[in-house]
Structures are given as structure tokens and as C-alpha cells.
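Saturday, quiet lab. Running sequence design on the C-alpha cells for the scaffold JK sent over.
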């Protein structure tokens, strides 16, 4: 028997990401694929909203509070710079529209994501050396995807010259 509980909003299959998608008391790391402006139906008709298209999640309607925090965390107010960025979100209770409601908020720091190590034993080592040799990548650009020690960086550059 599972101890996992189901939020009532999950049963209604809403079209957009919300607090119900985040486990209680936990943070969730989401990746922004792109930002769009969409017309969204509400009680008063249709309104334009900024929407984050998330990888592996439903789209997320971004309010001004979350857009300001995304600007701070990602380091840019330009939505094109938000693409392919990961952020940590959580839920909190806020006062809105005369009642207390659960809301999604962005943590004020980038998520600490452990990158895989790139070593001579790694399957991707030879490919990385080839990309460096072809001047399609540098050790620094590869550090966005891999944890590369100084010793291994030197070995990788040496391997690239012998490709």
C-alpha cells in the first residue's frame, strides 16, 4: 500500500502546471523549454498571459512575481535567455483574491545540479576530444555539461591534439 497522496486538482487534469504538481514540503527542479504568450480563458473572458513551456511538465502561467524571480535567478530579463534553464520551484500559501491559496514560487538561487564527471574512462571522452580538435567545443564550453577536473582538462586538450 502506497503512502503517496493525490492532490484533488490532479483528478481534474488542469491544463496548466500548479502547486498540486509539487510534492508537499519539497522543491521541484523544472526546465524551461521556451516562453510563449497565450490567450487564456478566465471568468472575465480571455486574457494574454506569459507561459513557460516546461520539459516533462504542463505549461506554467507565469505571474509578475515569478517573472521577476526568474530574471534574478537566471540573470537576464530577456525571455529568450530563460530557454533551457533549470530553476527550483516550491509551494507556499499566499493571500490572493480575498482568500489564502497555495502558489508556486521560484527559489532565489540556481538549483545545485551535480554534473557527470568527464574522465578518460568516460564513454564520451573520445567524442569530447574530437569536438575540441574540430574546434566545435572547448574544455570550458564542455564544463556546462560535465564536471572536468584541471588534470582531466589538460589530458583532454592533449587528447584533442592527437586526434
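Result came back. Writing it out in full:
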Amino acid at each position: 500500500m502506497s503512502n503517496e497522496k493525490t492532490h484533488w486538482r490532479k483528478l481534474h487534469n488542469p491544463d496548466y502546471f500548479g502547486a498540486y504538481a509539487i510534492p508537499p514540503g519539497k522543491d521541484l527542479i523544472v526546465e524551461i523549454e521556451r516562453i510563449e504568450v497565450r490567450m487564456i480563458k478566465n471568468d472575465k473572458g480571455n486574457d494574454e498571459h506569459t507561459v513557460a513551456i516546461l520539459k516533462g511538465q504542463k505549461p506554467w502561467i507565469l505571474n509578475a512575481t515569478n517573472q521577476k524571480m526568474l530574471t534574478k535567478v537566471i540573470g537576464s530579463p530577456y525571455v529568450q535567455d530563460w530557454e533551457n534553464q533549470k530553476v527550483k520551484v516550491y509551494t507556499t500559501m499566499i493571500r490572493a483574491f480575498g482568500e489564502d491559496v497555495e502558489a508556486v514560487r521560484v527559489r532565489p538561487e540556481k538549483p545545485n545540479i551535480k554534473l557527470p564527471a568527464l574522465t578518460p574512462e568516460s564513454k564520451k571522452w573520445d567524442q569530447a576530444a574530437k569536438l575540441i580538435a574540430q574546434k566545435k567545443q572547448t574544455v570550458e564550453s564542455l564544463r556546462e555539461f560535465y564536471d572536468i577536473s584541471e588534470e582531466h582538462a589538460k589530458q583532454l586538450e592533449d587528447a584533442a591534439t592527437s586526434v
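Notes for JK: The mean pLDDT is 90. Residues 150-161 form the longest helix (12 residues). Ask whether to fix the surface positions before the next round.
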